[in-house]
Amino acid sequence: MDLGIKGKWALVCGASKGLGLGCAQALAAEGVNLLIVARGAEALEQSAMNLRAAYADKTGAEVLFCAQDITTVAGREAVFAMRADFDIVVTNAGGPPPGDFRDWDREAWIKAVDANMLTPIELIKATVDGMAARGFGRIVNITSSAVKSPIDILGLSNGARSGLTGFVAGVARSSLAAKGVTINNLLPGKFDTDRIAATVKATSAKTGQSVEDIRRLQQAQIPVGRYGTPAEFGQVCAFLCSQQAGYMTGQNVLVDGGAFGGTF
């Protein structure tokens, strides 16, 4: 299927590895031009080189990169100094650390909200009017399955990402929708990334179980019997960015291998 987005420009955050990189790869495969952002300069530059090598000749995708912390004002200013207008924005920031809510002070909460709620809102605010003026826009916020099924040790993430979910529910149904701008949230379950490694390690420390046993048990509880891969997550993201997904907005799309047991 041709997704109809060849030649569009996308800003993809947290794209040096993991789910962000999976989204960047899927978009580049469709011929979308990329500005990828992450904090780690070395890993980001390597990912940009790999994307160019894989897709520049094949699809014509141009790949720029900006090593910045997108959760800071200075980081966002640096990104938008490179390019101001985007047709597609994929917001993504590393989740807050797991732990016991009794140990989190106000600073920990503010940091979580700033990264996982306020930063996506700032990126939306900076780009949607330009999208609306051009008659096309796709914003995909990578959040978490925890907004539907909270995880006890991820309280910071549960709270901050749920706040973003509530905000998107309103703004996605504003006048922007009639101007061709869609805003959706993509909710990953357990994917084989650094994030799952960190949470498994935390669970191991808390319970005394081995990392290997926890991974085996977690995968057995997922109906498809395994963790997801960044590549298949990226394909779902690319579809939400497509012309064909123009009638989807304000949705929370769960990609979790069937782990969430609810009907709605």
From TrEMBL:
Pfam families: adh_short_C2 (PF13561). InterPro entries: NAD(P)-bd_dom_sf (IPR036291), SDR (IPR050259), SDR_fam (IPR002347). PANTHER family: 3-OXOACYL-(ACYL-CARRIER-PROTEIN) REDUCTASE, NADPH-DEPENDENT REDUCTASE BACG. Belongs to the short-chain dehydrogenases/reductases (SDR) family. This is SDR family oxidoreductase.
